[in-house]
Design goal:
The chain is mainly beta. Helix content is 5%, strand content 39%.
Length: 185
């Protein structure tokens, strides 16, 4: 597995070793020992799969307290995936990084605890999977508006399809500090 550091410390891209022949391909989508050898020793508590159509934007989501780290990838289609540092005491507060994840590139994206996460579907349909370090907690569920001007995320589309929850999410400046994660997360 090849680990690629992004410009946002802690957020990593993981390119698995893919074995291919005329029958198809095989790769490990998760190997605890391999990740631990690269400093990613996490216990995953929940796995999720979502299916979305072109231009659907999900996010920016996070949990606080009880934050979730997420190891995400795409099994079908293509998405533009974003991580945002929302820890006010971090030197990279409000910075974001993004990557294209697809069934073709088989790339995984590690988004640590303390970051908001979102993605937009670029293909006709996408099947998205993620492993989370904590289970979902409705009381800790939170979000930030996808088009928050203070974050200035350069989304590849201008008119996404949003859930009501995501369309009404607050801007980061309007979220009370006690509802944001910290570096000690």
């Amino acid at each position: 597995m090849k680990i690629i550091e992004t410009d946002l410390p802690g957020c990593l891209l993981l390119d698995p070793k893919v074995l291919s022949d005329e029958r198809g391909f095989f790769y490990e989508s998760f190997n605890r020992d391999t990740l631990a050898a690269h400093g990613l020793s996490r216990d995953f508590a929940q796995g999720n799969v979502s299916s979305s159509s072109r231009n659907v934007l999900r996010g920016l989501h996070y949990q606080w307290p009880r934050p979730q780290g997420k190891l995400v990838s795409v099994l079908q289609g293509e998405v533009w995936d974003v991580a945002v540092d929302i820890r006010p005491d971090s030197p990279t507060f409000q910075r974001w990084t993004a990557a294209v994840l697809s069934a073709d590139n088989k790339r995984h994206f590690w988004i640590p605890e303390g970051f908001a996460h979102g993605f937009v579907v670029l293909s006709e349909r996408a099947l998205f999977t993620y492993l989370c370090t904590a289970t979902y907690d409705g009381a800790a569920d939170a979000g930030i508006r996808w088009n928050d001007a203070d974050l200035a995320i350069d989304w590849p589309i201008s008119a996404p399809l949003l859930s009501n929850k995501d369309a009404k999410a607050p801007f980061l400046v309007d979220i009370p500090m006690e509802r944001l994660p910290t570096l000690a997360t």
